[in-house]
Amino acid sequence: MADNVCNKVLFAISKRPARLTNLERVHDMSLRESKSNLLIIDDDETLRNLLSTAARSRGWHPVAATTGQEGLQLLDSEIRAVVLDHGLPDEDGIRVLTRLHEIFPNLPVIMLTGLNDAETAVRALKVGADDYLTKPFELERLFTVIQEACQKRRLSEEVSAVLIPTSASESGNLSKKSRSPRMSELFRQMERAAQLDITVLLTGESGTGKTHIAREIHRLSPRTREAFIPVSCPSLPRYLLESELFGHERGAFTGATAARAGRFEQASKGTIFLDEIGDLPSELQPKLLTVLQDREFFRVGGSQILHTDSRIIAATNIDLQARVADGSFREDLYYRLNIVELHLPPLRERLEDLPDLLHAILKKIADKRRVKPWSVTTAALEVLKNNRWPGNIRQLENVMERATAFSNSSELDERDIVPLIGERNEQPVSGVIPHRSLHEIERQAFIAAYEQSGRNKAKTARHLGIAERTVYNLLTRYELK
User: What is the pTM of this model?
Assistant: First the structure.
């Protein structure tokens, strides 16, 4: 088995371009730190060395361990992700995973296993693994999974920290944690929906916290001890999304060197969260409809009917009824998904929460940088209240990160905020069009689309009808990295 893995890894390295891709250049700044930030725990020396070499070529600073105990000793706050083998010489990888998350609960962990069965995958995911790969695996797939896991953890932490300023674990009554009547009602509906164990559709703009609400529904439901499996529909190419959802058999397509359980198998008895369901390709919609109706599906290339008892939560930032009207989304699938709809209001419609959100964001940034929290002047707060916030809470946190990075004071004033968002987002007086260059109009339109897409480059490209490479070029041109 180790030889197969090594052959695939060596092949992938030989095919890798010498220069880094744009995506790797804009990888998180933390990956450029000199200290070790990727922990590899595997007793196979050849594979361990190859993974370390591949990691360094991608900007990581890996450190490797041969046993679970050695890996735990190497663990510190600088580690950003862990690659963990299931079969270790001193103890089971699941136990090591449990101990890793006892020390750092939010640390992304990718499990490697030679056992190709859904039970092992579900055990790993229930304990807290972000994903698992069955040996032999594609090298590029591993590092894509690592990067996605880091991004999901980071975004989840950002939204969780600011959507509800106080800890959700303090009380089951989340309705008391918002000054906005609409958010209080949303929390009440969320608690009720969690207990009903039915399909839920979350709607709202990007950055409003749909992923956090989905996790809360799962946490408050009878399925809380089972796996919560998130799937981002637009993050994978269409030809891989079907395999991601439903799994595949060996030889089903080029590169399918082993059978793999899909997300619906992994989420059986738990919850599967289908993010941005509006981007589900039309050819996969009938198959999802079958799962919703009959709880049955086939793996790609398979002939055996598989069953799932997973609960489905879907989310979208687009108008699904409009997609139904134009024929791009099945009407019967829409009604199967929309048993209960929870709509998350945009930040501009819940400005009552802005002071609490700012307090939570600034405290989180200060804790991360190990400094005292900042405060916000009345003038700065007024500027923030007058902004339209197309990127919602996620954009608000981005603005605060940038404002605090360049401020020399513990108090953020209007002058710290205005350059980052503009003084006001007022509509021009009727009949009067401000004089702007074509370049500036293009820049503002691109920035708006980029923020509304949650800074997702693939989605931005689709929304604007341009190539994804063009998005990277525009980010460079407008100095938005």
Answer: 0.60
Q: What pLDDT shows up at residue 236?
A: 75
The interaxial angle of helices 392-406 and 139-163, nearest 10 deg, is: 90
Residues 6+ apart with CB under 8 A from 416: 380, 403, 406, 407
340-360, pLDDT tens digit by residue?
999 999 999 999 999 999 998
Give Cα 231 distance to the centre of its chain: 9
Closest residue by Cα to residue 362 from 180, 161, 211, 179 = 161
Neighbouring-strand partners of residue 202: 315, 342
Question: Other C-beta atoms within 10 Å of 303: how many?
Answer: 7
Structural domains in the chain, sorted by start: 2-141 (3.40.50.2300), 164-345 (3.40.50.300), 346-426 (1.10.8.60), 435-481 (1.10.10.60)
